[in-house]
Amino acid sequence: MRKDKICAVIVFILLFFTFSYSEINLSGNIFTDNRFRLEDNTFSWNEIQLISKLNLDIGNGHIYSETEFKSIGFPNILNSTDLQDTESINPLMINIRETYIDFYKFVLKNLDIRVGKQRIAWGTADKLNPTDNLNPDDLEDIMDFGRKLGSNSVKLTYYLGDYSLVGVVIPIFKPAVLPSDEWASAFFSSLPVPEGLILQSYSDTVILPKRSFEESSMFAVKFSGNLFNYDLSLSYFNGRDDIPLINNVIITSVSPTAIDVNVEMIYPKMQVIGADMSGEIGKIGVWGEAACFIPEKVIMITTMNTYTETTVALDSKPYYKYVVGMDYTFKNGLYINGQYLHGFIHEREEDNLEDYIILGMEKKFFDDDLKIKIGLGSEIKDFNKIKDNSAIMILPEISYIPMDNGEINLGAYFINGEDNTNFGKVKKNDEIYIKFKYSF
Amino acid sequence: MERIKILFLMFVLLISGFAFADGNNSQSQEFTAQQILKNVDEVINAPKDQEITVEMILIDKKGDEKVRKVKIWQKGSDKRMVKFLSPADVKGLAFLNLPNDMMYLYLPAFRKIRRIASHVKNTNFAGTDFTYDDIASTNYSEIYDAKLLKSNDQSKEQLYELELAPKEGIKKEYSKLIMAVRKDNFYPVKIEFYSKEGKLVKVMENSKIEKEGKYWIAKQALMHDLDKEHKTKMIILEIKFDQNLGDELFSKRYLKRR
């Protein structure tokens, strides 16, 4: 009920502004996404969303706001009381994805400043960007990887010819949205339980950093320019990893064969020194992105009854993630895109970084109204024993544009691989989907 | 270059008999083909800068139409920025063309500016029949060697017909262009685009060529892709010249601005 009221208030405000200012521009889209899991013949995803985008020019500046009204999931009914609760039947979420003000030529002619909740996208690679650490990951829909949440921040950009210097301050740390349980196994290892014991209950506590400048605030700088016809940038980030790490485990014996486990998680501090480039070799588009992660050492304390063990949960030794990619369009219009990635979003420490090869092919037909795309993703844990240490994901999709602004997507996710791989752990989650989108 | 000069001399000698006999072709004697092409460049790139609002109508082989609205800023002959104003699904998409073949695309959905490599230059720009290369600003005489094919004084519009071939070392998607140029103002009225196999693949026709202030401008252009049987009609809705647009406008800073 409360959310409905908020929704009504926001719609009212938007309409008020629309009618009050002729310069205001309201646009957005309506989007539906339904997925069907092949393993158990059930619907696995049910989403409808309205995104409203508001643009307003204000003299030497600009206001932008993007709000998402989303109904996602299925009716959550456990008893008759739930049937009286609208939210249980019709789950609704309102999310202000971005709301910011741009001040152009702020104090200095070459200085722009953006204040508010914003997405700051760094990196030249496609969706997999090791240098893009400012905004928290939004892993709610794991198939839409690369999506991030906006952060309340201040961004200053100073331009000097072909060069620019960006400085960002994010006062309050915000954690990532993690994937649902059925996909989480691809990201997080299950808790190891000592042999002969059964896990009776599990609970965890997530410790967010104290809301002080020293603990919660993050900052970053980036210098970009062009050299020998290549776009280059260097960046530095000082903040926190947005995916939690276990630093405390309390195991309590409840019987000779059963234990309760309580886990405490924190968000480790880290620094990231990054570099990226894009350009072309011959007619082939090329890009590369590398990041050196310097984490703060995290000690894990495991307590079982009176016994306490101390281990290193995260070493402070720097590790490197990188992506190299290329794309090309053939004369017949076939577009191909390939990327090699070392270190996925959630992976930490050199020994845990996997290798991934991602390929995409795309061709348009019938005056671009029909598009066929095939994505291939492969994970390789060990190049010497590929057969037993790899997984593959195949993502075919057909997109049809029946009218201006409208798009229908029909596709599938097929996953197969060894159980010791990230993809392999979710190989039972093969799905087909249909999505509709209309922009206005 | 020497070879072209000889070819041109032979061509002039060949046609001169007809021209002088006719006694009606004074201008073809005054200009070489390359000079005519340079004049074309001077006419189409004459304004110091331009800001144009254009309606693009995409017409398929059944005659069904889709409409796009874009705004184009151009400074000199080598800096151009194009921004989509409508429809909603492409609104905000922006393209920047800079000297040295540097092209960038702003993708608002991803909040990212993407460098465009050469392989993209010959693909269609946002569903139109113009390639990225076509939509980029043009200085024909720097890219092509011209050969005068015809000097037509008989038709209603007196025209030069030029054959343009890419200069040595310059790689273009087309093996040649045939350009019809008005003699009175050097404005190109028609360009035929030939593939590397010598096949006519596209035709662009400029119409409603009018003088706006002190500059000539085609208020309508039609690009016809003969293979796809698809056309894109560009209609100029609004035009402003010589506003002293700064160089900073043609930068990544302004590309991502709404």
Briefly summarize what is shown:
The complex is a heterodimer of chains A (440) and B (258). Chain A has 440 residues and is mainly beta.
Describe the structure.
The complex is a heterodimer of chains A (440) and B (258). Chain A is mainly β and 440 residues long. Among the domains of chain A are: 98 residues, no CATH class; 87 residues. Chain A is built from four helices and 23 strands. In chain A, the strands form two sheets. Chain A has an 18-stranded antiparallel β-barrel. A five-stranded mixed β-sheet of chain A has the order 8-12-11-15-16, with no helix packed on it. The longest helix of chain A is centred in the first third of the chain and has 19 residues. Chain A is globular. Chain A starts with a helix and ends with a strand. The model of chain A has no long low-confidence stretch (mean pLDDT 92). With 258 residues, chain B is an alpha+beta fold. Chain B has one domain: Clam (outer membrane lipoprotein receptor (LolB), chain A), CATH 2.50.20. Chain B contains seven helices and 13 strands. In chain B, a hairpin with a 5-residue loop joins strand 10 and strand 11. Chain B is globular, with a radius of gyration of 19 Å. The termini of chain B are far apart. The N terminus of chain B is likely disordered. Chains A and B meet through strand 13, strand 14 and strand 17 of A and strand 6 and helix 4 of B.
